[in-house]
Every structure is written in structure tokens, then in C-alpha cells.
Design brief:
single chain, 68 residues, mainly beta, 4-stranded antiparallel β-sheet, 4 strands, 53% strand, flat
């Protein structure tokens, strides 16, 4: 795909700090459909590529000079 989008995932568990993961600059790269027989016969799998990942606001690159 050539349209960029962002994804935000939040998880909250009892007696644990909330987790927020932000995927920024994502693009759709591949999808696969399965029509196999079984207890969960219909499924769709997608693959995405993203430019930046933030976990609870923390990044793996140096933000002091801007985004990569």
C-alpha cells in the first residue's frame, strides 16, 4: 500500500501499569486469506511495515534531533 496510517494498541491488566504501543507511518504490505475447514475456518492475515514504534512514549531512536 502507499497510504500511511497509525495504529494504537492499549492493554490494561489488573495490578499492572497500562501499556500503550503506537505504530506510526504504517503501510499495508501483504495479506493472506485461508478457507480451510476446521473450528476456525475463515481467517485473514495481514502484514504491515511501520517507521516508528513508541512504547509508553519511549522510542528507540534519539528524538532530540527529530524523527528518523
Amino acid at each position: 500500500g502507499d497510504v500511511e496510517f497509525d495504529i494504537v494498541v492499549q492493554a490494561i491488566e489488573t495490578d499492572d501499569a497500562p501499556l500503550t504501543v503506537e505504530l506510526e507511518g504504517c503501510v499495508w504490505t501483504k495479506n493472506t486469506a485461508s478457507f480451510e475447514e476446521g473450528p476456525d475456518p475463515l481467517s485473514e492475515e495481514i502484514e504491515i511495515d511501520c517507521m516508528k514504534i513508541r512504547r509508553n512514549g519511549t522510542v528507540l531512536f534519539d528524538e532530540s534531533e527529530g524523527s528518523p
